[in-house]
Amino acid sequence: MLRSLLIRATAPVLCAGLLWAAAPARALSPAPTRPVSSETWAQRATSTYRALQHHLYEGPEGHGLYLEHTPRQPADPDHSYLWSFREAAQAAVDMQDLPSTGASYRRDAAYRLGTAELYHTSGPRPGYASSLPAPLGPGGDVYYDDNAVVALTQLDQYEATGDARSLKRAEQAVPVVSRAWDGDGSRTCPGGMDWYDAPGNDIRATNVTALSAQLAARLYEHTRNRAYLEAAQQWYGWVYSCMRKAPGLYVNDRGDDGSVNGTLWTYNSGSMIGAATALYRGTGDAGYLKRAVADARGSLAYWTAGSRLHDQPAVFNAFYFKDLLDLDSVRPDPAYLKAMSAYADSTYRTNRDAAGGLFRFQASGGGDYDPTAPAATLDQSAMVQIFATLADATHQRRRPS
Questions:
Q1: How many other C-beta atoms are found inside a 10 Å radius of the C-beta of residue 59?
Q2: Tell me, what DSSP letter sits at residue 102?
Q3: Which of 167, 231, 258, 287 could bond 216 through an S-S bridge, CB–CB 3.0 to 4.6 Å?
């Protein structure tokens, strides 16, 4: 994910410098005095989705794929990377939850999930490649975080529709991400998951391990397959023991040489909250709920300070907020929806081109509006997800009990 940001650096600030140097410090705009209605969030989701489809979707003649940016940049592939496509697919899946019009997006969501298979490679080490395999692209390494999040989208689709094919596809990701587990007991803090499937990988990453734990825990909820539970507990436990800096804050990765990349991202906070929440639902173990709540409160206190949320990539915030609302469904706390609403409303007002409905950020994918920046499928899809999720969440809050 976000290859330019997650590549390890040698300076003490690591790759965080790419984010905070690119985006001028700026506090979030104050939360609106009047809450934004579910109908308004739905309208924003719809207009943002339409802009995504109009400006970045290549249509059936383009194999149902997306551009990486508009306008296309010199280094862009012919079609988007897997991660960008996954976020567009997730956007369509989330649009199905719109209170009044969600059913009209079912065809789009099903089509995106089918198109995702164009990224899949077979052979002795199968998985979804970071770039389209031939004949549509040059192919690429299998990144384990990509495979985990594709499976999470498939699982969301199963939960939304009951389509057994989506559940089966999500289950097929478990042996893929399981290959990432590092069994070398001589390493500092043994265990953890490799970032990608290639001999040159030399890091064990929080994102892969936590997202895979979340996937396995959610699969256990649906299948009661104890192998998924055991995997989820092992993977979650490693991140909690080896990568936790403070409640809700997890360092990015550990090098095989013993070094630690201390960069913090909202989606690493979120994936651990989401994994613990799913483990609680699946097992009834209140210890997981206690950990999820502590991580949610600690991370929210950190990320809502100053311009930190604003400066994070929008796509990472989409992960984070949805995981907070997942926890909210079992242990309600109005702070989660309040923080998500404030971020979403501020970003809508400050980072959106009114004329075309496209969102523009710094090169990091977050930060202040940059009128010269190309619009990205990744960023546009993230904002669709955030608005659609808010439309559903605020609609549910006003339902009579």
A1: 10
A2: G
A3: 231
Average pLDDT of each block of 10 consecutive residues along the chain (401 residues)?
A: 38 29 38 79 98 98 98 98 98 98 98 98 96 97 98 98 98 98 96 96 97 98 98 98 98 97 98 98 98 98 98 98 98 98 98 97 98 98 99 83 44
Structure tokens that stand for 383 in this block: 């904002």
358 token code pair = 């496209």
SS3 284: coil
Alpha helices in 56-163 (DSSP H): 82-95, 106-115, 144-161
Contacts of 32 (CB under 8 A, 6+ apart): 341, 342, 345
Per-residue pLDDT, 399:
58
Question: In 304-375, where does DSSP find H-type helix?
Answer: 308-311, 314-328, 334-350
Distance CA 122, CA 130 (A): 14
Q: Please tell me the total number of residues recorded for the chain in this structure.
A: 401
Tokens standing for residue 355: 């004329």
Task: Specify the pLDDT at position 13.
Answer: 27
Paired residues of 57 in beta bridges: 66
Residue 263: count other Cβ atoms within 10 Å of its Cβ: 21
CA 42 – CA 101 distance, rounded (Å): 9
